[in-house]
Amino acid sequence: MEQTFIMIKPDGVQRGLVGEIIGRFEKKGFTLKGLKFITVDRAFAERHYADLSAKPFFNGLVEYIISGPVVAMVWEGKNVVTTGRKIIGATNPADSAPGTIRGDYAIDIGRNVIHGSDAVESARKEIALWFPEGIAEWSSSLHSWIYE
Ligand code: ADP
Predict the structure, then answer these.
(1) Ligand 1 centroid – CA 109 distance (Å)
(2) Directed axis angle between helix 18-28 and helix 80-88, to 10°?
(3) Ligand 1 pocket, 109 CB below 6 A?
(4) Which SUPFAM superfamilies does the protein's record reference (predicted)?
(5) Whether the Cβ atoms of residue 2 and residue 78 lie closer than 8 Å to each other
(6) 8 A C-beta contact, residue 122 and residue 3
(7) Predicted confidence (pLDDT) per residue in 62-112, tens digit
(8) What would the mean pLDDT of 99-127 be, rounded to a whole number?
(9) Which residues on adjacent β-strands are paired with residue 7?
(10) Is ligand 1 within 6 A of the CB of residue 112?
(11) Taking a C-beta distance cutoff of 8 angstroms, is the pair 114, 21 a contact?
(12) Is 134 left (phi over 0), alpha (psi -120 to 50) or beta?
């Protein structure tokens, strides 16, 4: 089964969107495999966003991510990376369709509430970075009601 890394960013936590966001992934049928509530430091945020270090918005992005606690999660399911990105919506909330998380709850690109891995390989790297201790070993008993 595919896994993805999802993070509710500090604005999502401050705005009380944690339950709403977790509920969307749960109700879709995906399985929660890891979850922690943490504030990361600058070095860690820079590692997470290392691929964007040359971007003009990089410093502002790092400041944003370290500005408060985040909810870091691992979700599992068929095509969860791609489908998770669809649930989240386009990077810029101005382009995110209504019904997506960013389309419903965000306005500015630099306060877009949530992160989701963009590929299976980046998900693997991000899960290893955020959950070095490993993740829960369990399988949902709802499996046969969700998958044919
Ligand atoms: P995504 O988070 O959708 O995978 P990117 O990896 O391109 O998007 O960018 C990472 C994050 O950096 C975005 O979610 C957003 O918070 C921020 N970001 C991207 N582009 C800009 C921008 N032009 N100005 C400010 N912040 C940006």
Answers:
(1) 6
(2) 140
(3) yes
(4) Nucleoside diphosphate kinase, NDK
(5) yes
(6) no
(7) 999 999 999 999 999 999 999 999 999 999 999 999 999 999 999 999 999
(8) 98
(9) 72, 115
(10) yes
(11) yes
(12) left
What's the pLDDT tens digit per position in 26-53?
999 999 999 999 999 999 999 999 999 9
**Which atom of ligand 1 approaches the CA of 115 most closely?**
2
ipTM reported for the complex surpasses 0.90 = yes
pLDDT computed for residue 84 by the predictor = 98
C-beta of 20 in contact with ligand 1 (< 6 A): no
115 pocket-lining for ligand 1 (C-beta < 6 Å):
yes
**DSSP3 helix / strand / coil % (the chain, rounded to 5):** 45, 20, 35
The residue whose CB lies within 8 Å of the most ligand 1 atoms, and thus the one to mutate among 5, 52, 58, 61, is: 61
Give the residue, out of 4, 49, 57, with the most ligand 1 atoms within 8 A of its beta carbon, to mutate for a pocket test: 57
- Retrieve residue 92's tokens: 């810029």
Partnered with residue 100 across adjacent β-strands are: 98
Interstrand relation of 114-116 and 3-8 (parallel, antiparallel or unpaired): antiparallel
Q: What is the pLDDT of residue 139?
A: 87
Active site (annotated) includes residue 143: no
